[in-house]
Amino acid sequence: MAESLLHVFRRLIRATGPISVAHFMAESNARYYGSRDPFGTAGDFITAPEISQMFGEMIGLSLADQWIRAGRPARIAWVEPGPGRGTLAADALRAAARHGLVPEVHFIETSPTLRGAQRARFPQATWHDDFASVPDDLPLLVVGNEFLDALPVRQLVRMAEGWRERMVGWQATGAADTEGHLLPVAGDRPMDAAIPPGRAGAAEGTIIETCPAAAAVTAEVAARLARQGGAALWIDYGHDTPRDGSTLQAVRAHAKVDPFAAPGEADLTALVDFAALVPVAQEAGARVDGVLGQGTFLKRLGIEARAAMLARHAPAQADTVARALARLTDPEQMGSLFKVMGFTAPQWPRNGAFD
Ligand code: SAH
Fold first, then answer.
1. Which of 1, 132, 234, 261 has its CA 20 to 30 A from that of 57?
2. Is residue 1 very low, low, confident or very high in pLDDT (cuts 50, 70, 90)?
């Protein structure tokens, strides 16, 4: 068995000092996703496509509609970063195929375990480590569900002496090497230059969180859409107005746990700042069709009619379907905390769900 990540971090921090929250989150999630299938009731968390086939079907129909209005380009690629078990792609592409849309399948996935699960469903897919190797000669339909929230965030904290990067240090609590725990600490180096003008005077203790990796991948997708054509949907737990504070959280066995307690053993996520990603996509050349709550987005695409049809065809499943519909769309459940950002090549028609 691999050495626990807690031990690796402890050794590293004792030898060279605290590591950044971003480094901590990136290494923790690489270990976490690389070593297991985290989904389902027996796992750590459940995502929208694992709740019901209706979720993927609505996404597939929405992109098929855009593709039809774009003139049905014959060659087109489905590109999905972080596809998990491949469930969303399976449901979306089954629905899309009924309308004649049968794209090439490209998955961007770093976890060998999850690549295996995806291969079982899509033996003909192509896998990539990142967007760089995705083909550049055809339009792209890009869908990421709960992908951005797994990317490392950078945190800056306002101390009495000025802004510092938020780091992860080791607090010894006894004589033995293993006695102690990881905890957030302020870095030594002044970070005032990294703070946007206007925020420099924020109160002591203020944390500003950014996700450079989410901005980078959004810019890359937007630039590809502008050059190649196509459309993208980012779906994630997040907010569409800027806010302060750390949103780093850890989930294990369907419960929130201390993000610093057992790195690599719990899923680390941060809220996605859609307000920051909209201008990034626009500046890189895409048109942002909108940002909507997941509930509104799915209802505009007809998820209620789809639920009624599924219940009619399988009355024994009617309760399950109704519960799944509520879970995906109710504002108290996933309906408003989860957001959908649609961005499209400027030469393509808009995603109709945002009109
Ligand atoms: N979209 C799926 C899975 C979400 S979990 C669903 O909705 O069920 C996050 C996914 O992103 C996992 O497949 C994980 O292995 C992958 N992932 C995490 N960090 C990644 C990275 N840096 N590059 C590519 N994939 C990543």
1. 132
2. low
Cα–chain center distance at 230: 20
CA torsion, ordered 7, 10, 14, 20, to nearest 10 deg? 140
Lining ligand 1 with CB less than 6 A are: 29, 33, 39, 47, 49-50, 81-84, 88, 108-111, 114, 145-147, 150
- Classify each residue of 277-308 as buried b or exposed e, where b means 16 or more C-beta atoms within 10 Å of its C-beta: bbebbeebbbbbbbbbbbbbbbbebbbeebbe
- Testing ligand 1's pocket by substitution, the residue of 52, 59, 110, 294 carrying the most ligand atoms inside 8 A of its CB is 110
Contact 275, 241 (CB under 8 A): yes
Q: Strand 255-257: give its sheet, edge to edge.
A: 255-257, 249-252, 267-269
- Please tell me the distance between residue 232's alpha carbon and the centre of ligand 1 in angstroms: 16
pLDDT of residue 109 exceeding 80: yes
Residue 83 CA to ligand 1 centre (angstroms): 6
Query: Ligand 1 atom closest to Cα of 39?
Result: 8
Instruction: Give me the pLDDT at residue 197, please.
Output: 84
Could you give phi then psi for residue 3, rounded to 5 degrees?
-60, 140
Ligand 1 mean position, distance from CA 151 (Å): 9
What span, in angstroms and rounded, lies between the C-alpha atoms of 49 and 221? 22
Mean pLDDT score of the chain: 96
Dmax (CA) for the chain in angstroms is 70
What pLDDT is stored for residue 198 in this prediction?
87
Task: Pick 196 or 245 by higher pLDDT.
Answer: 245
